[in-house]
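request received
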Amino acid sequence: MSNGPASDPRWRPLAAARPAMSAAWWQWIASRDSLTSRLASAGGQQAFRVRLLDQRLGRPRRDEALALGLPLARHAWLREVALCLDERPWVVARSVVPLEGLHGQRLDRLGERSLGSWLFRQPDLERGPLEVTADPAPFHTASGPWARRSLFRHRRFAVLVQEFFLDGMASDLRLPSR
Ligand SMILES: C=C(O[C@@H]1C=C(C(=O)O)C=C[C@H]1O)C(=O)O
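response:
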């Protein structure tokens, strides 16, 4: 028998995590602009790439459904990517989109283009508060110090974006362990 699904991360408001967070990590975790462009510039000469890990319709985890106000069995559009610098994963991200707001948006065609670069082009984009966890990504084996999530809205379109920052990024950028 397998171990079953990994347990849901325990999310806390950003401010609650601040005392345990170094100033260097705070710069990354508390930023509200596009992570895609921050990573690309932090990587300098290294090539930034979105590696598509999985994209499908499926059931969100319980913590995701609660954050989106979705009934627990309701399917949503799920997308998992690794944000890589020179093929090294720095962040793994999972996005959950309720189907109600999806029509008209051809997100299945995004492929390895960043969801963030599309999102941040929307003039009426709203971003909810950031929440943070030190728990591991339930959908990936790589470990890291921190993860965050927030809800983006653009008209009827909503997406819960969860970003798990990995140890590889910490060592490449010589960031503190937490
Ligand atoms: C929300 C952003 O988009 C990033 C790109 C993603 C993707 O392509 O699936 C997913 C999450 C984010 O890390 C961002 O750049 O800030």
